[in-house]
Amino acid sequence: MNFTDFSKEEIERAARYHRPRYTLLFVRTALTVCVVLALRFGVGRDLDGAGWAGAAALWAVLVVVALDFAALPLDVWHGYLRERAWGFSTQTLRGWVADHAKGLAISTVLAVGAWTTVVALGRVWPSWWVAPAAAGAALVVLVLLFGAPVVLEPIFNSFRPLDDTSLAERLTALADRADAPVKTVLVADASRRTNKVNAYVSGLGGWRRVENRNTLLEASDPDGVALVVAHELGHRKLRHVAKLTIAAMAAAVAVVIVLRLVLTPPHGRDLPVALLVVLASEVVLLPLLSALSRRFERQADLFALRTTGELATFEHVMTTLARRNLGDLAPPRWAYLLMFSHPTAPERLAFARANA
Ligand SMILES: [Zn+2]
Cα of 239 to ligand 1 centre, how many Å? Predict the structure, then answer.
């Protein structure tokens, strides 16, 4: 790998920022296993008196809330204190806590709904609950990945149309030229929360839109914004959201099938075991989904280069974003394989130059 785009100091600084994150992943996973086992063999045994539905719902609340509270010190440190210390977070503690509480509320509702449904299915079809459960899991993934932009994102962000009309026209024209027309160019008020820069495409059919975070608009010149948007249009044109969603749905079905081997049929108190199975499945499935995602990122980069024809802008944007977002330039191999949805900046630069 050619690292001439970044200095030794930049590579080390990025490593200092990211290494604790990888350690945290181990600690968090170990913590999850401990909490789940403690619940299974501790307090949890008293919940069966609440009837099957009550026990399932109580188990879901107990597990989600206990895991959240156990990891709260880590999350405050990782998600809030450290981001502030490194100058990324622009959020107040109050804002962070509000976001976290919203996330917890959503997780709790989803967990209660999902687990009670699984247990109910197990009561009706002790052997065949796996079929509707797998279909349901696939449907939930579909709704979350396609519907989340419309339903969940407004809870966390507010959006407004891009008021720079000449830039909006340029981006709309770019979308037309890329044969991926958009209805609206929206700006999300991400700077309320972070200085990190991003743009993304989401949604389905008529909801499709390009969103720029206001941090992107502030950090880049119009050429840079156009290039980032061209990359996002590439994702759309090549149907990456749809393909990744299908892959994630297949993964969800696979996890339910593995659950079927362990739970015969599921009871409310089996939730800790179910979670351990899901955790283990993730370790197997995440590298596959991450590899697919990295492949799509390369294709979108290629699309952006071909649509704009500007290697120099690509180089400028890629190095600027990596510096500003402090992307990990040389991550440990295992972390890269497990959870990197994007190739590293040096990889993307090398790929762009090789294909320009
Ligand atoms: Zn991308």
Answer: 12
* Whether residue 265 has a cis bond before it, omega within 30° of 0: yes
Going from the Cα of 213 to the center of ligand 1, the distance in angstroms, rounded, reads: 14
CA of 309 to the centre of ligand 1 (A): 17
Q: How far apart are CA 138 and CA 246, in angstroms?
A: 9
CA of 242 to the centre of ligand 1 (A): 14
State in Å: Cα 300 to ligand 1 middle: 6
Residue 129 · residue 265 · CB < 8 Å? yes
Burial class (CB in 10 A: 0-12, 13-18, 19+), 268: buried
Question: How much is the average pLDDT of 186-214?
Answer: 55
pTM assigned to the model: 0.81
CA distance 215 to 229: 14
pLDDT-derived band of residue 206, with 50, 70 and 90 as boundaries? very low
- For the stretch 234-274, pLDDT in tens is 888 898 888 999 999 999 999 999 999 999 889 999 999 99
94: left (phi over 0), alpha (psi -120 to 50) or beta: alpha
Which segments within the chain are labelled E, that is strand?
159-161, 185-188, 199-202, 209-213
Tokens at 324, concatenated: 């500003």
Give the Å distance between the CA of 301 and the centre of ligand 1.
Answer: 7
Distance in Å, CA 299 to ligand 1 centroid: 9
Average pLDDT over residues 215-233: 79
- 127 alpha carbon to ligand 1 midpoint, in Å? 42
Question: Ligand 1 center to residue 229 CA distance, Å?
Answer: 10
DSSP code of residue 274: H
pLDDT for the residue 205 = 37
Residue 199 three-state SS: strand
CA distance 16 to 34: 28
Ligand 1 centroid–CA 252 distance in Å is 23
Q: Using the mean position of ligand 1's atoms as its centre, give its distance from the Cα of residue 197 in Å.
A: 12
Q: How many CB atoms lie within 10 A of CB 105?
A: 12
